[in-house]
Every structure is written in structure tokens, then in C-alpha cells.
Design a protein that fits this description.
nine-stranded antiparallel β-sheet, elongated, mainly beta, 233 residues, three-stranded antiparallel β-sheet
């Protein structure tokens, strides 16, 4: 009887793992590339760059932000649609965890509140921690849409971008789309079909504006991504 145990266990696992009748599924290796940049300009109308001045004057400054995401180890995912139309993106603990390299570069003449650094003059110039910072992180994947309306999937990095405590962005830059979350539009037929490879690309150039107390700002950005799905088996 002992010789039958492995076979019985394998059979039981196979029955559990097998797709339900009428279900559609496909296994993929996913890689992600993201390039993002934004430029923001802020003007504070109530500044005193010269401590001796009596009346306030406007002062402007800018900030730039660049973010890149590159795949170190791909994400193994099963795209699955149940017979009742429920979509799922399934990752397995048996596959190596996906890893992405996230890097951000900043250059800024703004403080962390989004105002120009010289708005209140006098004293020594504040130090910044602008430059380039990076880290590795995992990635979440979830279906985009709902029952009978599966429209693709969402990728979201597990970790936030590296912190900058003394290198501010314009308020309007904070209103631009988050480059750490990507929505990929695709049909169920594509995601559960038989194609050996799928490539999804998109590029957007958003704009935003913001007003906070005496500071107004505007920003433009560019977000480009490429997601590749290669048949796993």
C-alpha cells in the first residue's frame, strides 16, 4: 500500500489543480519595463527672498523626477477565467518570486512643501538629498475588471519609491499618474489564448495643476511602459 501513496497524492493534487470544465487558463512569464519623467514649476506669490524687504514678492522654482523599472526576475502568473466569468491572476509559491529594480532620480529647487527654496531668505542654503536612489521590490498582479467584464490586469510594485526627505516636488507633480501602478488593457481571449507571446505597450503625456495657499504649480509628465508575456508551458 505504501507504494500507492505518492500516486494517490499526485492524482489528488492534479484533480485540485485541473481547471474546471469550461474554464480558460494560460501560464505566462511576465516582464515589465517602465520609463517615467515629470517636470514641475511652482510659484509662491508671498515670498521674502531678501529678509530686509517689506512687501512680499513672487518666486519660482522647478523640480524634475525620473523613474525607471526593470525586471530582474520575471513574474510567473496563470491567467484564469472560471466558467461563471470570474477572472483571476494566480501566482504560485513554487515559482521564484518576481523581482524588479526601481530607481528614481530627482533634481529640485523646491522644499518638501513644494515652495521655492529661497522663498524665505537669510541664513545658510538648505541641504538636499537629491540625486539617484534605487531598490529592488516584488510586484502584485490583479485582474482589471470584474465578472464577465475582464479588461486586463493591474501591476503594482510592492514597495514605494525610495524616500527623498529633502528634495521636494511641485504639488502638481503629485497629481500626475503613479508610475508604480500600471493598468494593462487586454481581452480574456488574449490572456487565456494560445499565442506564444504577447506584448503590450503604451505611452501617455499627462498634465496637472495645483494650488495650495500662496503657491500655484503646473506639471507635465511622460509615462511609457512595455509588458511582455511569454508562454511558460
Amino acid at each position: 500500500m505504501r507504494r500507492l501513496v505518492p500516486f494517490a497524492l499526485a492524482l489528488a493534487v492534479g484533480l485540485v489543480a485541473a481547471p474546471a470544465a469550461g474554464a480558460r487558463d494560460a501560464d505566462w512569464k511576465l516582464t515589465l519595463t517602465v520609463d517615467y519623467s515629470s517636470t514641475g514649476t511652482a510659484t509662491d506669490s508671498h515670498c521674502f527672498p531678501d529678509p530686509a524687504q517689506i512687501a512680499p514678492s513672487p518666486l519660482s522654482a522647478s523640480a524634475t523626477r525620473e523613474v525607471t523599472i526593470r525586471t530582474i526576475r520575471p513574474l510567473f502568473v496563470e491567467m484564469y477565467e472560471a466558467p461563471n466569468g470570474v477572472p483571476a491572476t494566480i501566482t504560485s509559491s513554487f515559482d521564484p518570486a518576481a523581482r524588479m529594480k526601481l530607481a528614481e532620480t530627482r533634481d529640485s529647487g523646491l522644499d518638501t512643501s513644494g515652495s521655492p527654496l529661497g522663498c524665505h531668505g537669510g541664513g545658510t542654503a538648505p541641504t538636499t538629498d537629491c540625486g539617484t536612489k534605487s531598490r529592488t521590490t516584488g510586484v502584485y498582479i490583479n485582474p482589471l475588471g470584474n465578472i464577465h467584464h475582464w479588461r486586463g490586469f493591474t501591476l503594482e510594485l510592492e514597495s514605494e519609491a525610495p524616500p527623498f526627505s529633502r528634495c521636494g516636488l511641485a504639488g502638481a507633480q503629485q497629481e500626475l499618474p503613479d508610475p508604480l501602478q500600471i493598468d494593462v488593457k487586454a481581452t480574456p481571449g488574449q490572456l487565456t489564448g494560445t499565442a506564444p507571446k504577447l506584448v503590450f505597450r503604451d505611452s501617455v503625456t499627462p498634465r496637472a495643476s495645483d494650488r495650495h495657499e500662496t503657491t500655484i504649480s503646473s506639471a507635465t509628465g511622460k509615462l511609457t511602459y512595455t509588458v511582455k508575456l511569454v508562454r511558460d508551458r
